[in-house]
Amino acid sequence: MDPENITRRIKEFQFLGLTASRPLQYVLFMAFLTVYITTWFGNLTIITAVITDHRLRSPMYFLLGNLAFIDLSESSVTVPKMLWDLTLQHKVISFTGCMTQIFFFHFTGGAAIFFLMVMALDRYVAIHKPLQYLTIMKPGMCVGLVAGAWLGGFVHSLVQIVLMVRLPFCGPNILDHYYCDVPQVIKLACTDTFVIELLMFSNSGLLTILTFFALVVSYTIILVKIRVHVTEGKKKALSTCGAQITVVCIHFVPPVLIYGQPFQKFSGEKALATLFTVFAPMLNPLIYTLRNTEMKNAVRRLLKRNLFSEKKLQVGFP
Predict the structure, then answer these.
(1) 82 CB-near residues (< 8 Å, 6+ apart)
(2) Which end of the chain has fewer CB atoms surrounding its CB within 10 Å, N or C?
(3) What whole-number distance in Å separates Cα of residue 294 and Cα of residue 297?
(4) 14 touches 174 (CB < 8 A)
(5) Bridge partners of residue 13, in order along the sequence
(6) DSSP single-letter state for residue 279
(7) How confident is the model over 133-162, as pLDDT tens digits?
């Protein structure tokens, strides 16, 4: 069927959501709202600590602050809409809203994937070239790497959305999910999507798998280097790399399972999707704070300063 001869009739898509049970939807609303508030609190705390604490001036903490910003951006693409829909019986999104959500979902998600590669590069340089670390990872280089990660996410997302908006959608319009994403929406197109799905797989699934494999190899090399050659600060280096490996697994395992299987639906897709859209942005700051002594101390200092300021205000204004 020629797409040019089909008039697009779909104006909106309807979500089936996470569950049809109204009592369970209210329970999920409270649980996910708590997670979302914690996500904002945790990531904003890291960003504020990195900006205000002079002890966190190394490239690693600059990158960590930017990862926190990406986590906030990524969670805000899907979670607010999901929370709103959990309070409604009829869950819909306009066609334009759906395409917009897909664009920003893959924009922020792609940026996160490329950014985790940047953080692996940072650890590689810190372990293999410790004396030249600050020379190599200078501020201009760090800013360029961050900008490159966002640019990579933008190009990745732009390719997805350009392929999507050209497809004809004439019905049905039911999405068995709680947000718009390529694997679900593309199956509603009124045309043969084999070639498009193959292109989508190469742009999402294959990219995710290859990047994950590259990161696993990189961190394996880094860990071997730490165990064999590093003597001073070995515990700190292992702790930092362990935190980053944990974050990489949380970010990559669900997308590999979802996007690495083209032309078929993954049975646990919605449950896995909540892991990297809802929980991963909350877990990242917890992981880095609990496993990094300097960050833990910086957060304590930040909270003490805020509490001290509040006490001074209370004394000044009884």
Answers:
(1) 18, 32, 178, 179, 278
(2) C
(3) 5
(4) yes
(5) 93
(6) I
(7) 899 999 999 999 999 999 999 999 998 899
Residue 126 has pLDDT above 50, yes or no: yes
How far are the Cα atoms of 146, 184, 191 from residue 194, in angstroms, in the given order? 35, 14, 9
CA 50, CA 146: separation in Å to the nearest integer? Answer: 16
Report the C-alpha gap between 146 and 119 in whole angstroms: 10
Contacts of 240 (CB under 8 A, 6+ apart): 60, 123, 291, 292
> Rounded distance, CA 22 to CA 10, Å?
27
Note the pLDDT tens digit of each residue in 230-281: 666 667 777 777 777 888 888 888 888 887 776 566 667 888 889 889 998 9
Q: Confirm if 42 and 286 have CB atoms less than 8 A apart.
A: yes
Q: In whole angstroms, what is the distance from residue 39 CA to residue 45 CA?
A: 10
Query: What tokens appear for 276 in the block?
Result: 């990297």
* Contacts of residue 223, Cβ cutoff 8 Å, sequence gap at least 6: 238, 241
| Whole-prediction pTM | 0.86
